[in-house]
Automatic annotation (TrEMBL), chain A:
<feature type="region of interest" description="Disordered">
    <location>
        <begin position="288"/>
        <end position="420"/>
    </location>
</feature>
<keyword id="KW-0597">Phosphoprotein</keyword>
<feature type="compositionally biased region" description="Low complexity">
    <location>
        <begin position="293"/>
        <end position="307"/>
    </location>
</feature>
<dbReference type="InterPro" id="IPR003594">
    <property type="entry name" value="HATPase_dom"/>
</dbReference>
<feature type="compositionally biased region" description="Low complexity">
    <location>
        <begin position="315"/>
        <end position="327"/>
    </location>
</feature>
<protein>
    <recommendedName>
        <fullName>histidine kinase</fullName>
        <ecNumber>2.7.13.3</ecNumber>
    </recommendedName>
</protein>
<dbReference type="GO" id="GO:0000160">
    <property type="term" value="P:phosphorelay signal transduction system"/>
</dbReference>
<feature type="domain" description="Histidine kinase/HSP90-like ATPase">
    <location>
        <begin position="174"/>
        <end position="281"/>
    </location>
</feature>
<dbReference type="GO" id="GO:0004673">
    <property type="term" value="F:protein histidine kinase activity"/>
</dbReference>
From TrEMBL, chain B:
<protein>
    <recommendedName>
        <fullName>DUF742 domain-containing protein</fullName>
    </recommendedName>
</protein>
<dbReference type="Pfam" id="PF05331">
    <property type="entry name" value="DUF742"/>
</dbReference>
<dbReference type="InterPro" id="IPR007995">
    <property type="entry name" value="DUF742"/>
</dbReference>
Amino acid sequence: MTKYTANPLLWVLFLVLAAAVLVVVRQRKASAALRQEISGLREHYTDLEHHYTQSVASAQEQADEATKTVLKSAMRTLQGLAAEQQLILSRLQDKYGESVILQDLLEVDHTNSQFGRRAQSIAVLCGGWLGRHRDVASVYDVVRSAQGRIRHYRRVEILSQVDFGISSRAVEPVALALAELLDNATSYSSPDTVVEINIRTVPKGVVIVVDDAGVGMNDEERARAERLLTTERVNGVGGLGNPPQFGLAVIGVLSERFGFEVSVDSASPYGGVRSVLLLPHELLTGMPERRTQPPAAAPAPVAAQVPAPAPAPLARPAAQPAALPSAAVPPPAAESYGSTEDGLPIRRRKRPMAIVPPTESAPYGAPAAPAATASRSGEQTAAMLGAFQRGTRSGRATQRDDANQTTSTRGASSEGHEFS
Amino acid sequence: MRAGGEDLEFEPADLVRAYVITKGRELPDEQQLSLITLVTAAPQDGRRPARLTPEEQRLLDICSAGYLSVAEVAGHTRLPLGVVRIVLAALTEGGHLMTRPPVPRARNADKDLLEEVLNGLHRKFG
């Protein structure tokens, strides 16, 4: 044993072994510490990542909000300007209605309407202002308003009408949504095809059906359309693609906000897309009455320009004198037209002579009932005959007065028909 | 959407713009339809053709009672005169209206001739 203990080699071996054990233990400790550190770091990293995503999202949200706010106010300015320009154009059209400039004014008006619509669409996506409050309007007029807001409005044909009006708050949104549908319909079909609109009443309300003769949509497009119109709401102007596709996003937002339904999932009889806009009863009213009071701006220029273009050379038609003998008889097809919106009376050519006083039982404005004719009293008959005589006498007198003048211009004033 | 008072900046313009009413048609020729051309509704067997716009219906109503000049017809509507001319021309093309040129103004008698006649009469009888 001592022999072994005396062996220095053994001691060396022992020492080496001890050192090795020590090293191993230390390494073990170190690696455990390292491992712990790594997992700590990993945790920290996840944390950081999470925070990062959060802050990026919130930054994006903020940026989106900022963009929306900026766009909203910018669009409001543009919408206001477009509306102002539209009014100016209306005035110009009234003022220069006789001139060839009118043609160009109408073109400018058309461009302006499209421009206003674009601004409106962006405003809608940014949760902004839709425009001015409108009066109740007929469904037909709202459809035509939508028609006027797209470039290729000449290709749109309205094939049917219904006797319904749209309540005032829905007029503008429905017109805008329909304009976007029509824009899609005309843009995705060939320029020589017609886009048809049918308006029908259904149990749930009124539908406006738009049929185009384009190529239709593929499955992907259809799915996107479906999403935009039903569940997914676009907020802001991000995610509209490049080039941005506003149409369906705008329609989706509008239909949700104002409570009408739009679907584009069926095919038109011409192979294109059939879009259907359903207006529920809540948005419908009766037909609007024709405005009796013209808008404040309109009457003055209209009334002022009417007498001017009706100058003296306006001659009475040659057939006019023939009306003389029949003047004492109530006009056969007298329709009561009343007056125009401007308060001007609508003239009827076959009305009785003004100098003949109407009898009480059968006023000359309305067709006499056969019963009334049968039971005419002697006095009435006498009065009528008297009136007839007075009439013919005054007619002869007028003709004598006229003998020096040219008879054919006798009725030249704008009320000339009085003297038939 | 619209906070109160926001939408009062302008009175709204007409909902249906004039170029939609004309359907983008061009102004008719001055010879074809001038201000003083006379128009009247073509005789129709009782029923009004369907698919006319409200403006066309209204113009037909105004014209249905006899010949009126284009200027007068326009005066009864709120539409610009050119727009009325375009729609009237379209109605005429569609056979709903009849037009005829204005009756030419009677020529004034020759003043010199009249004076001579007067003088002659004076000489003879006066």
